[in-house]
Design goal:
Number of strands: 5
Number of helices: 11
Radius of gyration: 33 Å
Order of helices and strands: HHHHHHHHHEHEEHEE
Strand order of the largest sheet: 1-2-3-5-4
Strand content: 5-15%
Number of domains: 3
Largest sheet: 5 strands, mixed
Length: 375
């Protein structure tokens, strides 16, 4: 088991990379660079002053690449420490460097946070080598050596923990998006299946009544029947992989017309009021289903999490190009905020249909959800 774990770590790919150099790194370097220069100039009894200043300045500049090239940064800084410690051990028997070099503890964190499995293994060997030589040059006792080692290696543990948490969050978000895509695919399939089934029935009836019509009409009906049957079969085959054990639903998917029923099913408090305006009769089935699902999730969040809410307003307005859904509760400011992955699913559903989704606290009270979908 241990061997498999080591192999898995060694083969682990590099974690998703942040921007090459973020403003925090520039700010850090801007603070540390003059500190290194001033310490190198004014500190008393500094061994090999020019070398210490050059090494301190170089180590600070390397921090700019700690996110994108963590192993290279570790190799440059701790490799130089190994060389300096080795030379110092053979000559002056005193540590060479500045106090501000404590900033190198950021490099083990960066290595575990953004490096690949192999980079982490190689980098830790370099760090341990520099640590061993450093303790040999400036040994002050067993307790100090243990605490110094923990101080240097703890950031690597912290980086690994942050990396695991971030990766878990990304995987959970991917699962939410996948479930929402599957749900949307099922709804699209079921809606299309109803319409195509109707086409097949109409085509079959047309063949029966077309006995006295020209032969071309019969041929056309035959083609309609064949194409519709083939389309239905291909659609069922394509979406079969998305269905686990559930059977295909034979009832139409809910739409805008079902919002009133949804409002009545939530109970007396908070009261859900639905307002519909514009031409909502000829909406596409996928758009109507998306409006219903987003409203359903938003109402559920408001009922469960909006403190002191007495009313939830659901407004659906349609024009020639789009449909706008707005859900607003009158609870305490921001009290129905994001509590899970529902917002991720609603955002994914809206974006898959070419629309937009926004959610946030209202200007005075409550929480506002707004989705805009093309007709």
């Amino acid at each position: 088991m241990l061997r498999n774990a080591v192999r898995s770590l060694w083969a682990e790919p590099r974690a998703p990379q942040p921007p090459a150099r973020v403003w925090r790194d520039w700010l850090l370097v801007g603070l540390l660079l003059p500190t290194a220069i001033l310490e190198g100039i004014f500190r008393d009894q500094l061994v090999w002053r020019p070398v210490a200043i050059a090494f301190g300045v170089g180590a600070v500049l390397v921090l700019l690449w700690r996110r994108t090239y963590p192993l290279a940064a570790v190799a440059a800084v701790f490799g130089s420490l190994i060389v300096l410690s080795g030379v110092s051990l053979l000559t002056v028997h005193a540590p060479v460097g500045l106090y501000m070099m404590i900033c190198v503890v950021l490099l083990p964190y960066s290595l575990a946070r953004w490096g690949s499995g192999r980079e982490i293994g190689i980098g830790l060997l370099i760090i341990l080598g520099a640590l061993s030589l450093g303790l040999a040059v400036d040994y002050t006792g067993f307790v100090d050596s243990v605490f110094g080692s923990i101080f240097l290696l703890f950031p690597a543990t912290l980086g690994a923990a942050v990396r695991y948490r971030t990766s878990s969050r990304v995987r959970e978000l991917d699962q939410v998006r996948l479930r929402e895509r599957e749900q949307l695919a099922r709804e699209l399939h079921d809606t299309v299946a109803h319409h195509v089934s109707a086409i097949v029935i109409r085509a079959q009836a047309g063949r029966v009544v077309a006995a006295s019509d020209p032969e071309a009409a019969v041929d056309a009906l035959s083609i309609i029947e064949a194409e519709a049957s083939r389309t239905l079969a291909e659609m069922r085959s394509m979406v079969a992989g998305l269905r686990a054990d559930e059977a295909a639903a034979l009832t139409p998917q809910p739409g805008v017309a079902d919002l009133e029923r949804l409002a009545r099913s939530t109970g007396p408090r908070p009261r859900v009021e639905v307002e519909l305006s514009g031409d909502l009769d000829d909406l596409g089935p996928s758009v109507g289903a998306a409006i219903y699902r987003i409203a359903q999730e938003s109402i559920t969040n408001a009922v469960r999490h909006a403190r002191e809410a007495t009313r939830v307003d659901v407004r659906v307005a349609a024009d020639d190009t789009c449909v706008r859904l707005t859900v607003h509760d009158d609870g305490e400011a921001g009290s129905a905020g994001p509590v899970g992955y529902g917002l991720v699913g609603m955002t994914e559903r809206a974006s898959l249909l070419g629309g937009s989704f926004e959610a946030g606290p209202g200007p005075e009270r409550g929480w506002i959800v707004e989705a805009v979908l093309p007709r």
